[in-house]
Amino acid sequence: MTVLEFIRKNSLLVLIVIAAVGLGLVMMDYSGKGSYFSRDFYIQVNGTGYSYPETAALGENGQQYIQSLYSATTSKLRNKFDKNEDDALSADEQAAMNAWLTEHPEYQEFTAFLSTVLQAWSYGYAGDAGVNAAINRAILHEESAALGISPSKEQLDSYISNMPAFRQEDGSFDQALYQRLTGYHNGMSNNAQEAAFRKVVADMMVWECLSNMLTEGVRYQTKSLSDLMDMFSQKVSGLTAWLPAEAVSAPAEPTEEELKAYWEQHREQYKTEERRIVSLYTLTPAQGASLEGLMSTADALMQDLSAANGKGFDNLLASAAENPENEAFTYLNAEGKSHETFALSTLAEAAAPLQQQVEHNGNTTTLAHIAYNEVEGAPAPAEYEQAAAEGKADDLASITQVRGYFPTKDGKLVFIRVEAAEAPAELEFEAAREAALADLKKERADNALDIAAKELFSRMESAENAEAAFALAEQAGAKKETFGPVSVGLAEADLPAGLEPQALISVPTGKMAPLVVNAEGARFTAVTKRTLEESADYDMMKAFSLIPSQNAQLSTSLLLDWLHTAYTRYNVQLSEHIKLNK
Q1: Which of 11, 310, 359, 466 fits as disulfide partner to 397, beta carbons 3.0 to 4.6 Å?
Q2: 547, pLDDT greater than 80
Q3: CB 331 within 8 A of CB 284
């Protein structure tokens, strides 16, 4: 019997099966969006659920676009003045750039705005900044819809065209950068990637609009803030004395019983180091291929990988490498493997390929540091190794275990995936003994120092004057010296080690500042003189730098408070699998 004959004779049965399958697919809809049957979600905002891939697309990919804009802007600015093209600015080049920036403040304003957006979107309850960014963008979408402030296509186009990131030296639009960020390649547009990028920019516009609405006109009272700046800008002079820890009599050696009791009380402090299994997926441009073009392919791969929740990366790479529309690349290493997985190890023991330095969020770091510090939720090694033995290791992967891509110094692109993570385990007494003994002896030494320092400080406070007080300190073995005049508060203060400038702000002249005790010793300080600068330069700096900076911090605080209340207003719900901030 042919398939068509079977369908004709069993049409009712076939319809029932199709309906059942359709219902099953709806019930299995992990995202919860558009389904009245599914209650599963990774995050939920205002009743709308988002799956793992959707959360990653909103969060991690959103962060990636902002970081790309930041890097493009700062790189473009650096390259403008890096005349010898050594990726560094000499003193003269730096001075030329600073002078140029005074004439074009929009560059610093734009990078500051991107930094503020990235910081604000990373704020939240989840331990993963990418999850927080997804939640906060989902909140923005709800708020945008409620207020009707979504930007039009024309407004979005205008906003993008005026970004310093897309402004070339001759004032024209950097079409090549736009095409790379939006996945345009070989004459073909990537509609999904372009839509994702434009949505991030639209959310930035909504955030800026909300910022203006919520903080417009909110400023500190100028006179009060000016007085506060004066307080922070005062200069003080004084006497200080340093009592080193070794000048205090050493406490008695702990007994074995005392040591074991100390370990019992603090045993959670003595653990093995975390170990991880990490894989690197390396894309190598073919001869004559462009790294820029390969980055465009990598952008699209991240979108596809997010949609697949981190699974099937080998197949995605194989398909992309064979696709003639992509920039030509290989992903096989010297052994012909699609990726390289490194054995379970601590961060300090990480294999040499993981020690490669890359640029990440404006800083230089290693692939190992990213893998060990920015990924949560990987399975236990035993679970992973069993799945690997069964050829099912990829089934355990999720998008939250993937970080990338990162250009390497040898012109390749690397993706990181943490396959497994072994949590630290408490050490038994014998294994922890030496560390516990050192800690107990240090604690006793610190306590001895603390007691001696407080007794001396009390006597110094009762002395007739500062000179008499510091004579007592010298008798106890402390070294006396003078300091000042130095600025406290906002300016860097050239003070002796261990002396906190903020502690001197409110100390009356002739009186002792609060005692400072740390592991190395104790610091005793008295203020003998204070002055306040009065000059046109200081007044200008206060009016155009210090006061605006404080008002900007106030605006940021108000926006974070608004985000905090929005979590309640939009009934934000998190999956039980999401690790929360402590």
Answers
A1: 310
A2: no
A3: yes
